[in-house]
Amino acid sequence: MLVLGIETSCDETAVGIVEDRFTLRANVIASQVELHAPYGGVVPEVAARAHLEALLPTIDHALVEAGCGLSDMDAIAVTSGPGLIGALLVGVSAAKGLALAHDKPLIGVNHLRAHVEVAQLEFGELQPPLAALVVSGGHTSIVALEKVGSGGESGDDGRFRQLGATIDDAAGEAFDKIARFIGLGYPGGPEIDRLARQGDPKAIDFPRAMLHEPGYDMSLSGLKTAVIRYLRRLEAAGTEPDLADVAASFQEAIVDVQVVKTLRAARDEGLERVVLAGGVAANTRLRARFAEACEREGLGLVVPSIPLCTDNGAMVAASGANLLAAGTLADLELGVDPNLPLAG
Ligand code: KG4
Ligand code: ZN
């Protein structure tokens, strides 16, 4: 069973091909990073136009990589939300065209669930009960996955139950905003990650909002404000900040909150392992701290390799393959939902 997955929800035009739900046959990404870098962030119109130009060549490239043709596919899967509306529309329109032209089933994929389900390509079937931390540019939440199986009848398979989420900024958004403020490039997460390696994570005691409040929600916008205030204070005093220390201390505060809240959720809910998902799961410090904490608490830890954490087509193909196996198909009425939630 071969599924082609198309991802155009943000700034990567990406296509993956997955065989029999677990085997990755192709994963090709046409990155738009250089197009958006001069603006310091993703420009939605630029993204949509770039997807339009890159999508068909990227599909061809993936088919060559997998050594097969569109006629060999059993379904065409596409991210239908959440994401930028114009960017999503490019992918969904193309997927509809391909499904119609080649008489293949069409599958609408939830980008956030796909971030979690991509782990099956490296670790096999996800083993519930587990907690997944989904940390990306637009989203930060902790969900529980309790039932075995793949997909469901309605498309909202009910396997994911939301336990907590940020009440304001997403973790990736905080990384990107602080990176921009201190003059690092876009996207900011990897830049902070790199700079932080030369800094002391204990140098500055930035706030960890809601850390000791019960529950699994978190707040990251106060942290961002605290970093900006700290830098302005130093500037007013004519003191040069140690930016590596700032990056390391800021990153440590974000990571602390993610580790404490996720492990608390796993413990309280009797979940046996933790899955890290989404672009921020590429963060070196986050990965290391979760490895330590899960080991200490006797929890399993599932961390996809870095190229499968940041946006990619393989995740859409993997999630699409699960939905195909469950018989959850879309039709040509498939729309896009820029605000599609992870758990219904
Ligand atoms: O999942 P993703 O690729 O796209 C969305 O669905 O949003 O996540 C992108 C986010 C960006 O905010 C980027 O700065 C962040 O993930 N990111 C990182 C790292 N790599 C990517 N954040 C921290 N450390 C990293 N190494
Ligand atoms: Zn993403």
> Can you tell me the overall shape?
globular
Number of domains: 2
CATH level-4 homologous superfamily of the largest domain: ATPase, nucleotide binding domain
Instruction: Please state the structural category.
Output: alpha/beta
Number of strands: 10
For the sheet with most strands, the description reads: 5 strands, mixed
Order of neighbouring strands in the sheet with most strands: 3-2-1-4-5
User: What is the chain-wise order of helices and strands?
Assistant: EEEHHEHEHHEEEHHHHEHEHH
Bound molecules: 5'-O-[(R)-(carboxyoxy)(hydroxy)phosphoryl]adenosine, zinc ion
Strand proportion, as a percent range, falls in 15-25%
Amount of helix: 40-55%
Q: Mean of the pLDDT scores?
A: 95
Radius of gyration: 20 Å
- The CATH topology annotation of the largest domain reads as Nucleotidyltransferase, domain 5
Q: Count of helical segments?
A: 12
CATH class of the largest domain equals Alpha Beta
